[in-house]
Every structure is written in structure tokens, then in C-alpha cells.
# Entry
Amino acid sequence: MSPALNDEMVEVLDALEVNDDCKVLVLTGNGDAFSAGMDLREFFRAQDGLPYVKAMRVRRSAHIWQWAQLAHFAKPTIAMVNGWCFGGAFTPLVACDLAIAADEATFGLSEINWGIIPGGAVTKACVATMSLRDAMYYILTGETFDGKKAAQMRLVNESVPKAKLRERTAELAKILMDKNPHTIRACKEAVRGVVPMSFEESFDYLGARARSFASSMTKAAARKA
Ligand code: V55
# Structure
């Protein structure tokens, strides 16, 4: 993911979010990779010696689409991991609501071998989905793992043979398309919302959300009538 790709993804996701023809977003890779992560030359080396503010600028579009836009996307999102998935690729992977991998996909946190920490939100993405033991193991060793192992660790929902990947993803997308889009949006926001909360805070937050959602649905129905 180069700075140019990151800028383009911000635009593409913006356009799809307001396009009524888009009901579910599937994020996948072209060719034999899901994503190799952040472009080492264009993203990292080109920033060596850059002033802090300039380096932040280069990073901004990456962080916007790979986390904020995807995690809060107005429609359900599925990461379809078709192949190689390394380092920085873990952020958009975890930002998607659901993830399906090919059994044959190869995952890895190779940062340790480059002398860097999995930065951006990569370490956070691992800890948010994998157990602390698994996250620590793969971050410290840089060992790779396949789609089956990713599913077993719950980094992805499931893993299927590569030949079945599109079919299974389309089947899942269809299930999501058949739900009420407003309800599905409210549900995904609620799930993300309660993650950092206590039960007490959740009662309060979900109660307020449920009331405001019910009232906006009543208004929408009234406008239709
Ligand atoms: C990484 C590091 C970053 C970043 C995204 O995986 C990914 C490493 C140091 O910044 O913004």
C-alpha cells in the first residue's frame, strides 16, 4: 500500500459509501496477494529524515481508509483474504466487519525481521482479534500461518479452499444484503461501540442508541407515509 494507493482508497470508499448500488463491501486483493502491507520504499524509506509533520501527512490517508473509513463504513464489510497478508494489511483486515480467508492464504507479521514494531494500528488489530498469547507469538517470531490457522485463532471468521472463496463470500454477502440496512448499520456500530466499555456504560450507551434508532426509524416511516 503506497501513498498513491492510500489516497485512491480514501476516494473509492467515500464514493461507495454513498452509492446506493453498493449494499455490502468486499475488500480483496488483485492477483495472488490480499496485501503485502505498507510499501516499504515509498511509505517507510521515503519518510526517513522527513520532518514529523510531513511524515504524518504521508501516513494520514493510510490511517483514514485502513481504519476509520472501514470500521465505520455505513454498509457491512467483508475482507476476502485471497493470498499473502502481511504487516500493515492486518489493519484493513481487522477493520472489516467479517473476514473469510482461503486455506492457502499466508499471513505474517514480518516487522520483527525489519527491525520495526508493527506500527500504525497493526499491533492493536492483532490484540483486538487474536489472544494475547497468539498475538505475542506471531509478532515476536515473525512466523507465518495459513488461513486455517487464522480461522482457528479467530483472526478471520472462517477459512475455505481457495476455489470456494468467492462463492462462500458471495453467499455471506447475500445473507447481509437481505437484512434491513439501517438495522445492520446500527448493530455494527453498537458492536464496535461497546468494545472499550464496561457493562454499566454499555447499558447506558445501547439504551441511548436504541432509543435514538427507534426514533429515527419512526421519523423515516413518517416521511415515507
Ligand atoms: C506499520 C507501521 C506504521 C504504519 C503502518 O506494520 C504499519 C507496520 C510505523 O508506522 O503506519
